[in-house]
From TrEMBL:
Residues 394-730 form the NADH:flavin oxidoreductase/NADH oxidase N-terminal domain. Pfam families: FAD_binding_3, Oxidored_FMN. This is Oxidoreductase. The lineage of its organism: Bacteria, Bacillati, Actinomycetota, Actinomycetes, Pseudonocardiales. Coiled coil: none annotated. It comes from the Bacteria.
Length: 783
């Protein structure tokens, strides 16, 4: 096979070495436009996991790399005059120049034809002449641009500027320095890569960059030239960090990170590798790692599969999930640094934990395994802020308004579709009672509707008759009489999403018969299958407002501890908030201020009807997941408006507003919205923020609470799977949480621990020609 490799960076060279070892008869040519020693950049970072794959795939390359490594276990967070150190992280770094030198030497040993200082042929020319074209031509890939119709790239340029530098200050750990300058917050990412030098990256939001460097930064530079005026100012701004040491440049200039994603990585016999196919923010040290893992997988797939087409399909199928997982973590890290300013009010221990867990790959449990002493220090600090004993963060008590909760776990509202004429049944007693017995601090009802025509389905509960009130009172009495849990009611009106089937009969599908008329701010149906709603008149708005207030009074008499107003998920109040569903031209439509008017009128009426000493919260959809709809900036203002009207908490969900939504699902995928609201307005108004959405482990709950991204965590499906989830979480963490006396005999933790997530696996390949064993490494994905 004749293979053309376009680009002589780590991805292209490493692929060439592996492919040549597996098939010495392959004719492999690498084109690199730069000279062998024209190396830009400083250090590159590898995790122990990646190095394991390299060692098994090519021991010679690994041995040469190992001789060059600078290793460290610690991460130091320098913030507001403090240093917090976390150990056990296990990284290695080396000079990018030396890495390329090792790979160049290995190519020469194996007979790979590497053509330096030579412009690569175009993708069309190469694909016509070669059996396989491997485009390893970097983030600005000409191949990707030329075949954009096939690769369908999505390139997002981010909001921070950064510059890559070196220093002769040899850091003894990975260093995060947060600098409070006259221009604003800046951050340093620093790590050693040899016994004489370290990488030194300065990153800052574009607004701060404009104030600090906008007037002096070079507007154009020749290839290889560095921005010397900016570097001179950096030496001044970072003088305390550098402590008299030198800063040096190597093609160092300001840039904004570009996140590259491609819908496909192949076109006929052309395949993308490394940064040409995908990028992940440098703050998780993954660029060279991903590139070399790509190279390993591609070489192995070409060896295993019967033909090139099958190999390229297998390569993409294997690598895409891993890359997607890494990009998700990198995106979380990138966005954390973009929004760094919203965390600088935090106490240094919490800030240190927050920065360490920003990508969600390092968690509370994970950190406890890496560095138990540091984790204990964090628990001790968190306990001191609550004047309690040391315990896992999720078991620290919390006060929402005047309501004391025994822990931070909330059973999220979940529609059960099992009421009869709006009356909760024995099912609800068992359903909600079991969750309260299971240890959660707060148990929420499903959306309880304020009128018969405000129900979603015929099976939805209500609070508009005396019989319904008595049935709910029976449930609250059970919870209060048998558990330390508190119980809250969520009041709502279905709006245009009403008069539909029970969930298991067809979610959001209209009833086959017996439909009632639905209403909304505007006459826009939820989908083509649903009714067109009646646009509400002002007298009807007043009537619905009064229905909410009447239901609130009934909820108070029924003994609920907390009331939540449902302004999310496309139901009536939510549909007033979103411009996608509210097209009114009166004072209730148009601007966000106007769209908020009716939900706030309802809130005020309910707040007046609800006892002053009992807290009231609001659930919102922080994004519509649709262009032109509510976004996180709007959500902050919506939360602010409710806080100003007296909300004690904001329950932050997303979506379900329009049927055409395109959510970005993933682990804890909604928590960044709660994070933003808590750290932007939570402190200002002293309101609680509840995170919800694919939170399924106590590790996630502890991590979110300790990092200050939320005050409470609401879990729904998790409690359906295990009604005693909170009790079991306490047992798993050896926290002596009291069990109901009837359950005490089962409170001892079962023998045998839980199993961890997937581990990387090694599979040996054997080359038929050489008989040499090569390791096939496939990393496991994060959970």
């Amino acid at each position: 096979m004749r293979i053309a490799v376009l680009g002589g960076g780590p991805a292209g060279l490493y692929f060439a070495t592996l492919a040549k070892q597996l098939h010495p008869d392959h004719e492999i040519t690498v084109w690199e436009r730069n000279a062998p020693d024209d190396t830009f950049g400083f250090g590159v970072v590898f995790s122990d996991e990646t190095l394991g794959g390299i060692e098994h795939a090519d021991p010679a390359v690994h041995a040469a790399m190992r001789r060059e490594f600078a290793r460290w276990d610690d991460i130091d967070v320098h913030f507001r005059g403090t240093v917090h150190t976390s150990g056990g992280h296990g990284f290695a770094a080396m000079s990018r120049k030396r890495l390329l030198g090792i790979l160049q030497e290995r190519c020469a040993e194996l007979g790979v034809d590497v053509r330096f200082g030579t412009q690569a042929p175009s993708a069309a020319e190469a694909s016509a002449e070669y059996d396989l074209v491997v485009a390893a031509d970097g983030v600005n890939s000409p191949t990707r641009a030329a075949l954009a119709g096939s690769f369908r790239p999505d390139i997002q340029t981010r909001r921070c500027k950064y510059i890559w530098l070196g220093t002769d200050l040899v850091f003894d750990a990975f260093k995060f320095h947060v600098l409070e300058t006259p221009h604003g917050i800046m951050q340093i990412h620093g790590y050693p890569y040899s016994d004489t030098e370290s990488t030194f990256i300065l990153e800052l939001h574009e607004d701060v960059w404009q104030r600090a460097f906008g007037g002096i930064a070079a507007t154009s530079l020749a290839p290889g030239e560095s921005d010397e005026k900016s570097i001179a100012l950096i030496r001044e701004l970072c003088a305390d960090v550098l402590d008299g040491h030198q800063v040096f440049a190597n093609n160092s200039k300001w840039t904004a990170f570009a996140t590259v994603r491609c819908a496909s990585w192949r076109h006929e016999n052309v395949v993308l590798l490394g940064d040409a196919a995908h990028t992940a923010h440098f703050s998780i040290g993954s660029g060279t790692k991903l590139a070399m893992e790509d190279a390993l997988a591609l070489a192995a797939c070409l060896h295993e599969q019967p033909d090139t087409g099958s190999a390229l399909s297998a390569y993409e199928a294997e690598r895409r999930p891993v890359v997607t997982s890494t990009q998700r973590a990198a995106q979380a890290s990138l966005e954390w640094f973009e929004n760094l300013g919203q965390y600088t009010h935090q106490d240094p221990p919490q800030f240190a934990f927050n920065i360490l867990t920003r990508s969600r790959r390092v968690t509370y449990d994970n950190l406890r395994l890496r560095d138990p002493e540091f984790a204990t220090e964090l628990d001790t600090w968190f306990a001191s802020t609550h004047a309690t004993d040391v315990r896992p963060p999720m078991f620290q008590p919390f006060r929402i308004g005047n309501l004391e909760l025994p822990n931070r776990v909330v059973v999220s509202p979940m529609d059960m579709y099992s009421a009869e004429d709006g009356v909760p049944t024995d099912f609800h007693l068992v359903h909600l009672g079991s969750k309260a017995l299971g240890g959660a601090g707060l148990v929420m009802t499903e959306m309880v509707c304020v009128s018969e025509t405000g129900r979603i389905t015929p099976g939805c509960g209500g609070l508009y008759t005396e019989e319904q009130e008595r049935a709910w009172a029976r449930i609250t009495e059970f919870v209060h009489g048998n558990t330390p849990a508190r119980i809250g009611v969520q009041l709502g009106h279905s709006g245009r999403k009403g008069s539909t089937k029970l969930m298991w009969e067809g979610i959001d599908q209209p009833l086959p018969e017996g439909n009632w008329e639905v209403c909304a701010p505007s006459a826009i149906p939820y989908s083509e299958a649903n009714q067109t709603p009646r646009e509400l008149t002002k007298p009807e708005l007043t009537e619905i407002r009064d229905q909410f207030a009447n239901s609130a009074r009934a909820a108070a008499r029924a003994g609920f501890d907390l009331l939540e107003l449902h302004c999310a998920h496309g139901y009536l109040l939510s549909s007033f908030l979103s411009p996608l569903t509210n097209r009114r031209t009166d004072e209730y439509g148009g601007s966000l201020e106007n769209r908020l008017r009716f939900p706030l009128e309802v809130f005020d009426a309910v707040r007046a009807a609800w006892p002053a000493e009992r807290p009231m919260t609001v659930r919102i959809s922080a994004t519509d997941w649709h262009e032109g709809g509510i976004d996180v900036d709007d959500a902050v203002e919506i939360a602010r408006a409710f806080a100003e009207h007296g909300a004690a908490g904001i329950d932050v969900s997303t979506g379900q507003v329009v049927s055409e939504e395109k959510p970005q699902y993933g682990r804890s995928y909604q928590t960044p919205y709660a994070d933003r609201i808590r750290n932007e307005i939570g402190r200002e108004y002293a309101i609680a923020v509840i995170a919800v959405g694919a939170i399924s482990s106590y590790d996630d709950v502890n991590s979110l609470i300790l990092a200050g991204r939320a005050d409470l965590c609401a879990l729904g499906r998790t409690h359906l799977y295990d009604p005693q989830w909170t009790l079991h979480a306490a047992a798993e963490q050896d926290y002596p949480m009291p069990w109901p006396k009837q359950y005490a005999a089962g409170s001892r933790k079962p023998q045998g621990g839980r199993t961890d997530g997937p581990k990387p696996r090694l599979e040996l390949l054997r080359s038929g020609e050489t008989g040499t064993a090569h390791a096939r490494w496939r990393p496991g994905s994060d959970r």
